[in-house]
Amino acid sequence: MSATLLIIHHTPSPFCQAMFEAVLAGATDPQIEGVEVVRRPALSVSESDMLAADGYLLGSPANLGYISGALKHAFDTTYYQILDATRGRPFGLYLHGNEGTEGAERAVDSITTGLGWTKAADYVTVSGKPGKEHLEACWELGGTLAAHLMG
């Protein structure tokens, strides 16, 4: 039986795209077996996507000190439907901001604490253009979350 890692992302910029691609590459590394990686844009993720997943990787720009409206919408439309069924599931987060990511981190902490999800890796936060070390950290984040689900 395979596990499912759901990547829920809002990727409106080239910098967010680079981070998303690095996370995806880490999560789908050939050394990771038995984990299906499903990716959904935050505006189209569904309750059934959330319920079918065994772990989550969240990606968002940090806009005006908060997570993107798209990622907030994903939680607004699924929160109560997934509340009891997803407790204890692991998650990770990557954020891109130009002015800082603290508010977005707090928002995700509040939402995931309410859901009872477990932080499985340090957050990856980048301000400005992601450098090689940032993209490597994103790759590690994807790999860590997928490996966590390998059973």
TrEMBL record:
Domain NADPH-dependent FMN reductase-like: from-to ranges: 47-126
Record-level Gene Ontology MF annotations: oxidoreductase activity
Pfam family, one: FMN_red
Protein name: Flavodoxin
